[in-house]
Amino acid sequence: MVLGKFIWDSRMKVWIDILTPKHTLFFEPLYRDFARAGHELLLTTRTYREAEEALELRRLRFRVVGEHGGGSRYGKLLASGRRVVKLAQLIEHWSPDTAVSFSSPEAARVAFGLGVPHIAVNDSPHSWLVARLSIPLSRYVCSPWIIRRKVWLSFGALPDGIVSYRALDAAAWLKRHRPNPAVLKQLKLRKDKPIIVLRTEESFASYLEGKASDRAPVIGPITEELLRRKLDAQIVISTRYGRQAPVLRKKFGSRVRVVDHIIDATSLLYYSTYFIGSGGTMTVEAALLGRPAISCF
Which of 2, 92, 172, 272 is buried most, with the most CB atoms less than 10 Å from its CB? Predict the structure, then answer.
């Protein structure tokens, strides 16, 4: 793997920037392997409930630098600018040998500006604003083989810096995961009754700007239809951000279980019967776990 060119020759200082729960799951094995090998590591994130809770759940040490910019371009721009300044001060002092992120625009910019090789992982070329801000500044871009080379070249990737791996990202943690039935007790679910899990959309994502609203989640009408059919099933909705949960609770009351905090979602999917999601990560997880999965946007 590309990281081996930097990491395994000698003791290194590696900076990993985490922006979402998925990044936590994806980079945790890397983090623990590097730590066992004696390398020095720095994990950074931003003020964002889901990311911080995911890191705490996995018991990873991290530093919070900057904040999430919300759903508007203006808010994202200001938050990103402020975060670049704070990260630059931290990274200049910490002086890593390599930076790794899931195409974090701030990590890519700071690493490039300070002359630190940045390795970007990316499986979401549809998030083209993020790709344009990170791929051209990265020494390497690593992605699943199903994304064609020309896609990354169009974003400005170096021709000799495109690395494909024959796996979907969720495999990085699924092959190490051991399902824990404690999540069923936590959500008061019965193991002997069908479980339908739904996931709300990433309403703050740049690629959904103007197309999504926390006031009317995409999975709302789907949930209504499931309830109308009076299925003998337990319905669980996993939400993002703080705004979605109150809307869904008000609409559906006790007929569904609305989750507004980070849980062991992989175990929940393992024990589920069906998955309907407005996001890629859990949809891929469900499919790889052999659960029927429907993606909706």
Answer: 272
DSSP string spanning the chain? -THHHHHSSS--EEEEE--SHHHHHHHHHHHHHHHHTT-EEEEEEEE-HHHHHHHHHTT---EEEEE---SSHHHHHHHHHHHHHHHHHHHHHH--SEEEESS-HHHHHHHHHTT--EEEE-S-TT-HHHHHHHGGG-SEEEEETTS-HHHHHHTT--GGGEEEESS-TTHHHHTT----THHHHHTT--TTS-EEEEE---TT-GGGTTT--TTS-THHHHHHHHHHTT-SSEEEEE--HHHHHHHHHHHHGGGSEEE-S---HHHHHHH-SEEEESSHHHHHHHHHTT--EEE--
Fold equal for 3-174 and 182-295: yes
Domain 3-174 coded CATH 3.40.50.2000: yes
Rounded to whole angstroms, the Cα distance separating 151 from 154 reads: 5
Q: What is the pLDDT of residues 79-104, one digit of tens each?
A: 999 999 999 999 999 999 999 999 99
Least reliable range by pLDDT among 44-58, 125-139, 235-249, 252-266: 235-249
Question: Amino acid letter at 164?
Answer: S
Q: Which fold has domain 182-295?
A: Rossmann fold (3.40.50)
pLDDT at 1: 46
* Better-predicted residue by pLDDT, 5 or 181: 181
pLDDT at 6 over 50: no
Q: 16: closest CA among 141, 100, 72, 78?
A: 100
Amino acid at 262: I
Residue 140 has pLDDT above 70, yes or no: yes
